[in-house]
Amino acid sequence: MFLQKNDKSNPNEEELPNGLHNGHAYSITGFYRKLPNDPRQSGLYLLRLRNPWGKWEWKGPWSDR
């Protein structure tokens, strides 16, 4: 599977504050669902992405930084 980040208001492949690049394709290498402690909540879903270029890293929550 793959995912492409595309923002038509910002067509350049520039790095966004979260570390993703607009107009760039990423491989989905994993999926994780964290079940909530409260059954009335929906839980949390995470995707693990791989950057085929290997030059940049995610800078948001759960990053290595």
TrEMBL record:
The active site is at residues 24, 51. One of its GO terms (cellular component) is cytoplasm. SUPFAM superfamilies: Cysteine proteinases. One of its GO terms (molecular function) is calcium-dependent cysteine-type endopeptidase activity. PROSITE patterns: CALPAIN_CAT. Residues 13-65 form the Calpain catalytic domain. This is Calpain catalytic domain-containing protein. Belongs to the peptidase C2 family. Residues 1-11 have a biased composition (Basic and acidic residues). InterPro entries: Calpain_cysteine_protease, Papain-like_cys_pep_sf, Peptidase_C2_calpain_cat. One of its GO terms (biological process) is proteolysis. Residues 1-21 are annotated as: Disordered. The lineage of its organism: Eukaryota, Metazoa, Spiralia, Lophotrochozoa, Mollusca.
